[in-house]
Amino acid sequence: MLEGLFAFLFQFGDAFAFLVLSASGLAIIFGMMGVINLAHGEFIMCGAYVTVTAAQAGLPLPLAIACGSLAAGIIGIILERAIINRLFNRPLDTIVATWGISLIATQGTLILLGSTMPGVGTPLGSFSVGDYSFSEYRVVLMAIAVLLMGGLYLLFHRTRYGILARATIQVPHMASALGVNTKVVHSLTFGLGAAMAGLAGGLYAPTMTLVPTMGTAFIVESFVTVVVGGADVFLGTAPAALILAFIKSGMTGLYGQLFGLIGLLLTVIVVIRIMPRGLSGWLLRGRE
Amino acid sequence: MSDLASRSAAPSGADRAAGARRGWRPWRLLARLNGPQTLGRGPAFWGGFVIVCMLVGIYPLFSDGWTVGNTAYFFTWTFMAMGLCVIWGYAGALSFGQTAFFGLSGYAYGVLTLNIGSAYGFTFLALAIGVGMSALLALLLGYFLFYGRISGVFLGIVTLSVTLVFETFMAQTAGPEWTIGSARLNGFNGMTGMPPLTLPWFDGELVLWPDIPLYYLLMGMVIVCYLALRIFVNSRFGNVLVAIRENPDRAETLGYDIRRYQLGAFIVGSSLAGLSGVLYTAWGQYITPNSMGLYAAALPIVWVAVGGRSDLTATLIGTLAVLWVFQTLTIYGSQYALVVMGALLLVTVLFAPRGLVLGLVDLAGWASGRLRRNGPASGQEDA
Amino acid sequence: MAILETRALEKNFGGVFVARAINFEMQPGEIHCLIGPNGAGKSSFFRLILGQHQPSAGTIWFDGQEITPLKSFQRIRLGISVKFQVPGIFKALSVWQNLEIGLQYHMQGDSLSAEIRQVLDFIELTDQATERAGNLSHGQQQWLEIGMAMSVKPKLLLLDEPTAGMSPQETAKTGEMVRTLNAEGMSILAVEHDMTFVRQIAQQVTVLHFGEIFAQGTIDQIVADERVAKIYLGKTNEA
């Protein structure tokens, strides 16, 4: 009984970590810039590829993951400067453009690096509770997910960049009137979102097969989390990830993987009917 | 303006019914072929239209059945493109998940015909049922989306998620337990072996393999669909759709329940995606979960964006052009085709936001010193 | 029976009141002006009447019927029409089509075209019928929207700053239009800053301040009210 409960909690924590890690980059870019980044999966893929390459070159895994995240972030900043900022206030066109980037990135990777790449093994060992055996690395991922939310909170509420970034979304004309370079803020924000995606890719790289289309494994879950959560990373993404993780791990445990996914989708469709602006929009209702 | 306040703001139902009866005159419908929502009017345009139709019509005489059958393949996709043009270009709601309807109807056609066969023209009934299922799904999904007042980007994400979940679902149906009657869903490899469209004919049956008869059937369907949609977008309904696209709040404060209109456009467009799915499945006698995946879902967006989403004619021309380019690329270097598609999307969005075909039309209009769109508003002639 | 009435109407956004205990009443056939300093809650009051905001408390009555639970488009269908502050026209569409979209709900065919021509004549845009609405001058865009709003012959016409950005001549002409519409039986509620214009058209004036009704009366009473002058009119009269 207790073992079963622990197994469920582990599944739940694992699903939560996956949702938080894969969605936070998308949520930052959407919440701060109103941009839906359809190349999100490709930033994840980029992070994973760079991480594995660095690890195989001899770097310790944590450092390699940092490289992956950094690489995705830099590419994010470049793309923002080159393309995204030209489409300011054209949200639908931004979606189309990021989809174009996604197609080029996936297929370009396939052409340049081939259909698959040798990975690195999952680090750390496993531990068992009763008859069940659990991966220790997954526990590390859960801890990182929680730490990441805390870190982002500090970043947006305690640092100069974070305060300027929030000022830029809340009162753009005021921010620019006060001398904030909103262009730089947008570039950094997009870069940060891309780096978060890269981080997710790096963290999950040891657990997955590296293929150019690996981003799609993350994309439905991260979109669903952002839609349910709404525009606020802390009041939206985190609670949404909790709820969705519960539904997903519950449905998966009872009926299997596919029903976990279908459960997620049904939740989204019902949630948007009740709260069109997501959880955070609902929590912040009246404060328009 | 003498009787300014004599009419109540909302006419009674009887008044409106009488108005509708007066309005039901076929030639009035035909007049809607031209209108402010569609490019092209007058003898020059329609003359050109007839010539193009004739050229497309005599083309099979100068080619062989196999090539003509392959050209017919292009036609199967145009319905999905025109449907997306209505949803995105005219109603202003970007759906990324049209392939969900494509796949649903395609699989429905497969399951039905594998179980019942193709006798007595059943394949056409299966076509209608397949399209009807898409309409029903669009009604359900659209209700949640539009009555939840989902705005632009969220609409895209939810519809995309729907099609990706469909793909995931169909991909895991490889096991023998996934059969409906005698039709095996067959997981990632997809369903095969369903009969092509089959017409009961004088001496037995006319089986429409990818060959010249199918080409003519599809060509006819494309023309009918194109003309019908021109009437649709120039109708009162279409007027409200573009009003919602331009300024939803204003449209609502003119007394329109904008959710119903968006839902209507979504159902029409999605049924057309379903029609494409059935025709595609019947054309090649197979359908796979890939047809609902991320890349398949991107294709309609590419066609419509590159052609010019705000006009049916531009969308139709753009779709056929992009399909042709894509196929040519696939022959000479398939792996680069998707890169080129992505680049095409970027270039269009950055440099010709209205689409390449419309961009060329604008350029031509500018060069000849006038923009055709700014010509006389047709409302005066055909109202 | 009042054409428009609000009872104890309240709206607050996270503790900030944009409407507080508003008991407003307006009689059929009246031209009523709503004035008040910026941020007094005038536009929010319009949004509440139109159903674009849901009130936190209180009820709204139109022509003897409670409309508080109705959606925006349902209220419009009862006979309310509005011209927004920022021109709410369809800029990419022609002037003709703008009017057609407003009117086609009520009529079609030849009577529709005839009616559109009449409205075009009334707002003096006959020559611009085929022009893209976005290409019109600012004043003409305002008139087009007034045309869209009045063409459906509402019982109550809401005008949010109908003369904003207009030249004095255009303003005077707009005043004439409003008076013509009123003479034919339409009740009109207008938010307006231009006191000359208010003087030209208003029979009754309500002053809003911090989301509350501050004063009410005829234009002369309001102008004579020193408290009102203090919060608002002082500046505007000189301007």
Describe the protein:
- The complex is a heterotrimer of chains A (288), B (383) and C (239).
- Chain A has 288 residues and is mainly alpha-helical.
- Chain A has a single domain, classed as ABC transporter involved in vitamin B12 uptake, BtuC (Orthogonal Bundle), CATH 1.10.3470.
- Helix content of chain A is 76%, strand content 3%.
- In chain A, strand 1 and strand 2 form a beta hairpin.
- Chain B has 383 residues and is mostly helical.
- Chain B has a domain at 33-294.
- Helices cover 68% and strands 4% of the residues of chain B.
- In chain B, the strands form three sheets. In chain B, strands 1-2 form a two-stranded antiparallel ribbon. In chain B, strands 3-6 form a two-stranded antiparallel sheet. A two-stranded antiparallel ribbon of chain B has the order 4-5.
- The relative contact order of chain B is 0.16.
- In chain C, 40% of the residues lie in helices and 25% in strands.
- In chain C, the strands form two sheets. Chain C has a six-stranded mixed sheet with strand order 6-7-8-3-9-10, sandwiched between helices. Chain C has a four-stranded antiparallel sheet with strand order 2-1-4-5, covered by helices on one side.
- In chain C, a hairpin with a 2-residue loop joins strand 9 (204-209) and strand 10.
- In chain C, helix 3 (95-103) crosses helix 4 (109-122), helix 3 runs parallel beside helix 5 and helix 4 crosses helix 5 (138-151).
- The longest helix of chain C is centred in the last third of the chain and has 16 residues, at 168-183.
- Chain C is globular.
- Classes of the chains: A mainly alpha (288), B mainly alpha (383), C alpha/beta (239).
Q: Quick one: which chains have the greatest interface?
A: B-C, 39 and 54 residues
Q: Biggest β-sheet of chain C: count, sense, barrel? A: 6 strands, mixed
Number of E-state strands of chain B: 6
Q: Numbering strands along the chain, what is their spatial order in the largest sheet of chain B?
A: 1-2
- The overall number of domains of chain C is 1
**Helical/strand content category of chain C:** alpha/beta
What fraction strand of chain B?
under 5%
Give me the count of strands of chain C: 10
Helix-strand topology string of chain C: EEEHEEHEHHHEHEHEEHH
The helix content of chain C is 40-55%
Q: Determine the N-to-C terminus distance of chain B.
A: 20 Å
Q: Would you state the CATH class of chain C?
A: Alpha Beta
Q: What form of chain B results from the Cα inertia axes? A: globular
Number of helices of chain C: 9
CATH architecture of chain C: 3-Layer(aba) Sandwich
Spatial order of strands in the largest sheet of chain C: 6-7-8-3-9-10
| Helix/strand order of chain B, N-terminal first | HHHHHHHEEEEEHHHHEHHHH
Radius of gyration from the alpha-carbon trace of chain B, in angstroms: 22 Å
Distance between the termini of chain C: 38 Å
Mean pLDDT of chain B: 83
Which term fits the overall shape of chain C?
A: globular
